[in-house]
Design goal:
Order of helices and strands of chain A: HHHHEHEHEHEEHEHEEHEHEHEE
Helix content of chain A: 25-40%
Strand order of the largest sheet of chain A: 2-1-3-4-5-11
Radius of gyration of chain A: 26 Å
Oligomer: homodimer
DNA sequence: TTGTTCCATGTTAGCGCTAACATGAGGTGA
DNA sequence: TCACCTCATGTTAGCGCTAACATGGAACAA
């Protein structure tokens, strides 16, 4: 290993330089170098300059792994999302990163792929890296994972929902109420045959319950519920499976736009306002895309990045309010 | 701190249990516990069972920070992307995570926000966590960052492009050729006034050069180039700024769809085939959305997740081909 | 002068784990 | 019977850093 040495002086040695090598070169003790890195104000200017020069000469890069072990602070947070590709959770990850990275925290990202077993494994994997907090979308699916998190004794933030018995902190919105709001709006519009399309994950299901309950309470027949596979998010075919329906709530905007595409093929989409649509379509997420298509997409707008930023804040402040409802807005455009 | 002990037996003590506590409880040495965790085959079944029981009793979670320091293996990879929200890079992150997570690697995610200074900082931050590889979108913007990566002596994978002098490995496609392909197609279609809209990041610029060079080579006038701010990706207004143009190459699908939205408002969008479009529009990225809108979006399809998976493979195998061109495809639909 | 305080720097021990090298019990073959 | 091997387990040292506690000199008041 030490045989991989490059020409001395021209490049770094085979192994990365350590604190004590810097110390030796600067003629100080290693703790002084450590202070230059972490609390430069405690070091006399001339000493500091000498140490900084030595660090530059050697191309020293602090080893945070060792630092973390010694200080019991990893300066990292674990983030668990169902999926990051093509998903609104990316906004949340971006939001929390933007808040945490400037503070020196790193984000360790894991994906559960909507799979409880994988979620358990990823949570265990995250915890073994001793993050200082865990931010996750939703709540742990298994009792086992829940126990793991409770025992971890670090801030845990559950997001994108408002669980009744959270482990610790919450930053989200009421998915049930979102479903209610959509149903209310459609009922007020005079729609009679409602349907819901989306996945059967916990949050989607909560939206469905709100949607259904409100429809029933308004005297409508029980809405149809079409559970789509996550893959065919743009299920053009969905319309064929919902004959007679005059209003649809899609659990996310991608589903909504896919459904609209099916409506177009069936000649059931107008470029006019909501009142002209044979079938009203409401999405959720407020993708930018929704404003660009025709007809423009009505949707439940959720601030994914605000959820992320709030979650980050909740990991940093242990006291104070631990449950933040970021709400949602029904944004009405031309699709319904 | 040890005064925070919970009732013995009912829960974890204030501090997380360590290997040696497990060892003591199981009546073995700590190395045996370590073996049970990492190489269970080396431990006799009865001993293993005893150790596993002790781990369960104590709720032991291995401390990978300590393990990493001792073994000089962190089992993590650093991933640097310009942005994760609303971006095709999320596909790449998903692809590489899917490949790396099952192997026990964690993904440390950082965002540069298309800012060279922030990129430098994030790279330094990543390197201090001693990842076993770095995967980044594009190439380092500064000489400083480049030096840092070269000196790190770990696999470095640059993605989403094919740099002439990569630091180490590459998984991407030829952005210049993508621009050429689009221009060729538009010229063949008889378009005369070309324009390019998009950002001025390195990859977008490479696409522009290809596009422009091919247009000029075909005897057309130099195409217009509209540099959009990253925020107004759906620049509905863009059309107004491109009078007389009959074909547009947008550096990504979001820009393309935004532009089409502007065309629609101007009455310049048909539901018919490409030949019927007063203004042809070609995007890049092949968002699912592009197939769902009307007219369907013609685009350069790039396999973002394949880039991620390939990058992951390149971090794992140090030998072999270090430059993988994943190519792209011109997918022709109705917009141009 | 003699504390007393502050400031800059150093010493010591140890974070929780693993690599590398023992150790000793039992089996094997000639 | 003895050298030799295999298998299961243990001992020792140390990864690179930081917390906590010295240390010793300058500055200052009484």
């Amino acid at each position: 290993m030490s045989s991989e040495l490059t020409a001395p002086g021209t490049g770094p040695a085979g192994a990365a330089p350590t604190l004590s090598e810097v110390a030796k070169r600067a003629g100080v003790s290693s703790i002084t170098v450590s202070r230059v890195v972490r609390m430069p104000d405690l070091v006399a200017p001339e000493t500091r300059a000498r140490v900084e020069q030595a660090m530059r000469d050697l191309g020293y890069i602090p080893n945070l792994v060792a630092g973390a072990l010694a200080s019991a602070r990893t300066n990292s947070v674990g983030v668990l999302v169902p999926t990051i590709a093509n998903s609104i959770f990316a906004d949340t990850v971006q939001g929390l990163s933007d808040k945490l990275e400037p503070l020196g925290f790193s984000v360790i990202l894991a994906q559960s792929r909507y799979d409880a077993e994988r979620e358990d494994r990823m949570l265990a994997a995250l915890l073994s890296r001793r993050p200082e907090a865990i931010i996750m979308v939703g709540s742990p699916a298994t009792e086992e994972a829940s126990r793991l998190l409770r025992n971890a004794r670090i801030p845990i933030v559950e997001t994108w929902d408002l669980p009744a018995n959270p482990i610790d902190a919450v930053a989200g919105f009421d998915n049930y109420k979102a479903g209610v709001a959509v149903a209310k709006h459609l009922v007020a519009q005079g729609r009679k045959q409602l349907a819901f399309i989306g996945g059967d994950d916990p949050r989607g299901t909560r939206r469905w319950f709100g949607f259904r309950d409100e429809a029933l309470a308004s005297g409508l027949a029980e809405p149809r519920r079409l559970i789509l596979d996550r893959k065919d998010s743009g299920s053009v075919a969905a319309h064929a499976r919902l004959p007679g329906v005059d209003a649809v709530f899609a659990a996310n905007d991608a589903h909504a736009i896919g459904f609209m595409s099916g409506l177009r093929k069936a000649g059931l989409l107008r470029d006019g306002p909501a009142s002209a649509q044979p079938v009203a379509v409401i999405g959720l997420g407020d993708l930018e895309m929704g404003q660009l298509i025709s007809p423009t997409l009505s949707t439940i707008s959720v601030h994914g990045d605000a959820i992320g930023r709030t979650a980050a804040t909740l990991t940093l402040e242990r006291g104070g309010e631990r449950r933040v409802d970021l709400g949602f807005e029904l944004v009405l455009r031309d699709s319904g």
